[in-house]
Amino acid sequence: MDVGRLKKVELREIWKNEATDFTSWLYDNLDALSDAIDCILVEPEQERKVDGSRYSIDILAETESGEGVIIENQLEQSDHKHLGQIITYLTNMDCKIAIWVCKEPRQEHINAINWLNEISDKYFYLVKLEAYKIGDSEPAPFFSVICQPTEEMKTLGENKKVIIENRLARHNRREQCDTLIVPAQEEGFKEVFLGEDRWYAIRISEKRIPQIKYIAAYQVSPISSITHIAEVKEIIPFEDSGKWQVIFKKPAKEIKHIPLGENTAKSPQGPVYAEYEKLINSKTVEDALAYDDYKKKAA
Fold first, then answer.
1. What pLDDT score was predicted for residue 50?
2. What's the pLDDT score for residue 267?
3. Whole-number mean pLDDT of the chain?
4. What is the mean predicted confidence (pLDDT) over 173-191?
5. Crossing angle between the packed helical segments 107-119 and 151-176, to the nearest 10 degrees
6. Do 63 and 69 contact (CB within 8 A), yes or no?
């Protein structure tokens, strides 16, 4: 039995012009793309004008449930221009799904489409187009899906959003922190913090020093509370230790004690930072150090 050999055919040998030849063929044979992405596409419109624009979408279609689909074709290697067009058309036409068909997807565009699927509520497909024939047969197109949305990808994207949101909140909190909280043993607290109006041998990031306006003492167990706060006069190097000492403007004043809270793991083991206004209005140290309030500011 004779068995034919599969031969790859250049796309331009079949479709000379991307807009008039290939897009027209795809319009008439949309079921081939539907089969590839496992999504039935209906009601196609060819060269549909983008609302309020001079640009046209290669094909605008719908899913069976009525969600808008844009399809952009490229008989060459993927490029930034088409990626930009896809995002522009998708948002301006209020569509849910974007399908990018191209000859050769570049890795940077694969990465971009995967990222868009993670971080957005839209659905992006990147489909590679090839054509083959056997012997003297007519060439047949072959669609292979390179990128597509998945539930796992959307979940990963949501997790990344939370991570980014928390990171921005922590950054926002750092920008607002003007109070240094230091843990203090009873003897050192009475002798130095109260007796000498200073605190020394503190590890402080030098970049933070200009924003520190107050210093608060967290008295360790059994008190386990912030009890006193002082306004900072200056922060100067402490001997040759690479650490710093904080000089008070005037003696520390006692405040309404701020207990540690339920989570004993939050007990300050070294210098930590807080925002003065939030600190003095907090019920616990845990509340004072939380950054949830800063998510709104970060947004």
1. 80
2. 74
3. 87
4. 90
5. 80
6. yes
Tokens of 131: 């054509």
Q: Indicate the Cα dihedral angle 220, 225, 226, 228, nearest 10°.
A: -80
pLDDT tens readout for residues 219-241: 888 888 999 999 999 999 998 88
Cα atoms found within 13 Å of the Cα of residue 129, Cβ hemisphere only = 26
Same fold, 6-149 and 172-298: no
Paired tokens of 14:
């079949």
Q: How far apart are CA 145 and CA 127, in angstroms?
A: 4
* Backbone phi, psi, residue 245, to 5°: -125, 145
CA gap 75, 56 in Å, rounded: 17
The H-assigned helical ranges of the chain are 11-14, 23-28, 30-37, 80-92, 107-119, 151-176, 186-188, 276-280, 285-289, 293-298
Cα–Cα distance for residue pair 246/236, rounded to 1 Å: 7
Collapse the DSSP code of 139 into the 3-class scheme (helix H, G, I; strand E, B; otherwise coil) and give the result. Answer: coil
Q: Beta strands 97-104 and 123-134: pairing type?
A: parallel
Q: Is the pLDDT of residue 167 over 60?
A: yes
Per-domain residue ranges for the chain?
6-149, 172-298
What architecture does CATH give domain 6-149? 3-Layer(aba) Sandwich (3.40)
d(CA 192, CA 205): 22
- Comparison of pLDDT for 213 and 150, the residue scoring more: 213
Class of domain 172-298: alpha beta
